[in-house]
Structure formats: C-alpha cells, structure tokens
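In response to the reviewer comment on reproducibility (Comment 2.3), we provide here a single inverse folding case reported in full, input and output, so that an independent group could reproduce the run without further information from us. The structure tokens appear first.
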C-alpha cells in the first residue's frame, strides 16, 4: 500500500488482535481525531495491513504539569514551551475493524496483533474508500464493549463519507443508514440515535 499520502501519527505501544494503543507527542495531536481510520502492519510476515478506528485520545500529565496547574499565574510563554518543546505523551486507543491482505479488504479481526514501535499511519482517502465499500465492519464496532459504540460508528461513517467526492457522500450515508437499520432493527432507540448522528 502506498504510504506517500499517509501521515504517521505515532507508534504502537501495546497491542492485541482486538486493538492497540498508539503513542505520540502532543505536537502531532492535530493529525488524528476520534473516529479516524488508521493502519499499521500485522506482526506476521504475511503482508497484512491492520485497519482500525481511533476511539480514545488521552493526554498524560507529568510532574511539571502538576506544578504549573498549582501556580497562581502561568505566562503564555511557559504554556507554549510546555506544549511545543516538551515531549508531552499522548496515547490513542484503536479498535481493529479489519485488514488488507494482498490489497483485498477483509472485515474481520486480524490474525496477529502489530508489534510495539511499529508506525501507525492515518489512512488516506483512497484507503478509506476501498475499505468502506461494504459495511461488514459495522458489526465489529457495534459489538465491541470497551468503545463508545454509537458515537464511534457515527464518526467512522461521517469520516468515510467525507473521503468520497461530494456527489457520492449522500448516497453513501443513505446506504450506511440502511445497513444500520438491518443490524439494529431489534434496538430502535439505539438505531434512532445513530441515524440522527449521521443524518445528511
């Protein structure tokens, strides 16, 4: 897969087949966002590219931040120095929603987790469009207990729609809504909430 148009957002901290955590520094925090599609490689040598969704972004503190918070007055130069020059750790949590193998998308959990320190890239529009041609990954997101399901699902759908040309976005959202209706016909409250979140 071509990574020239994709930007590295961090490196793998820990991983399982269900998902992984990615670390970066606060200076790169403008790149990833909640519900963004990211990719990294499988630990095996089978050429598998794992696809996931960012479901949490956490900024850790350190002793200096705790001291600064307790100060009566903090000047802007100190805040700028803390944010731009110091390496404030940022951790992103990602749920796996499938993978590419031999350039073919598969909407099941990957056979192996990635390895620590492997680079994590933000997927470009072409990769997102290719992966979201069908909606089989919806079930994985909706059934994962440790993520905010409805909000993550809505953010992923809106991000996938935004990766498409303007004249295709409405049709994509309508098709996604129909698939959600099939999956959540037994839970109308949840379905209605999700449909409101992705309404074109």
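Designed residues, in position order:
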């Amino acid at each position: 897969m071509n990574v020239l148009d994709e930007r590295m957002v961090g490196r793998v901290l820990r991983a399982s087949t269900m998902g992984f955590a990615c670390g970066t520094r606060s200076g790169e925090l403008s790149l990833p966002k909640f519900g963004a599609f990211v990719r990294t490689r499988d630990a095996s040598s089978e050429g598998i590219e794992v696809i996931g969704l960012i479901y949490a972004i956490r900024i850790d503190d350190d002793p200096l931040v705790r001291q600064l918070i307790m100060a009566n007055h903090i000047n802007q130069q100190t805040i700028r120095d803390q944010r731009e020059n110091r390496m404030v750790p940022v951790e992103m949590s990602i749920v796996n929603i499938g993978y590419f193998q031999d350039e073919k998308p598969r909407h099941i959990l990957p056979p192996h987790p990635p390895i620590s320190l492997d680079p994590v890239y933000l997927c470009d529009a072409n990769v997102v469009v290719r992966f979201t041609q069908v909606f089989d990954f919806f079930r994985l997101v909706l059934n994962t207990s440790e993520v905010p399901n409805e909000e993550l699902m809505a953010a992923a759908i809106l991000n996938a729609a935004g990766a498409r040309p303007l004249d295709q976005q409405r049709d994509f959202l309508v098709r996604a809504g129909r698939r959600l209706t099939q999956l959540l016909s037994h839970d109308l409250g949840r379905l209605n909430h999700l449909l409101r979140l992705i309404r074109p």
